[in-house]
Amino acid sequence: MEVHHPHHIVHKKKWNEYILEFIMLFVAVSLGFFAENLREQQIEKHREISYLENVHEDLQLDFQTTDTVIQSNNVRLAALDTFFVRLNSTTVTNEDVYYYVRNLALRSTFESSHIGFDQIKSAGGLRMIKNKEITSGIQQYEKMLSSIEKLEELRDRTLEQARFKMARVFDAKVLYEMSIHQSEAIIRFPKPTAADNILKKDPAALNELINLVSTGLNTNRYITSRLKALLKIGNQLDNAIMKEYGDKMH
User: Fold this and answer.
1) How confident is the model at residue 70 (pLDDT cuts 50, 70, 90)?
2) What is the pTM of this model?
3) Which of 240, 227, 248 is nearest to 62 (CA)?
4) How many Cβ atoms sit within 10 Å of the Cβ of residue 59?
5) Helix (H, G, I), strand (E, B), or coil: what is residue 8?
6) How far separated are the first and last CA of the chain, in Å rounded?
7) In whole angstroms, what is the distance from residue 122 CA to residue 99 CA?
């Protein structure tokens, strides 16, 4: 016995219904794409502001450190000038030699805060920052930092040689007396109460020591010049950041 199944009537869509469904699907996908793109842009913008806020804070710390190092450099350079005036006038004493050379062999190092700058680098460089004045300022600032670092390395190598030479030329007991009475001031070590006849003991070795200290310390003149340029670049960069994003920062 044959069983006849009823045929279901299939509704055939009109071509305009297919077009409408396609348009609706396209709009939904497009809206989703635009929403996701907008969300990513908002996240990246928030990250940009956050990183530049850290750069702003880095710069504030750097400004303070720069002023401190410049002041320290100027004090030591003034002491170096005084020392050579005393040497040239032959009024310098053995105690003076210990006092000046020991203090002038020290140095102040500029250490930049790098939190914001490092974050920008780790996030793929400057591509996220749209303000050209800010990107240019960051590039100039880092270039100047590199220049200062190289000069400081040159100075430190020379002053390290001076300290090795000092260990051979100076009397250990006199240096020890100065060390146990040192302070936290820029000119840290006090003049010894008494010293051996360092001026007569080995004039050639003493002259070499003074040359090393003088050459190393004179590099401070170039470092100070670079630090002043860094301050100018840093202030321009900070002003650009605050003008663009100051009202959006916490």
Assistant:
1) very high
2) 0.80
3) 227
4) 23
5) coil
6) 85
7) 47
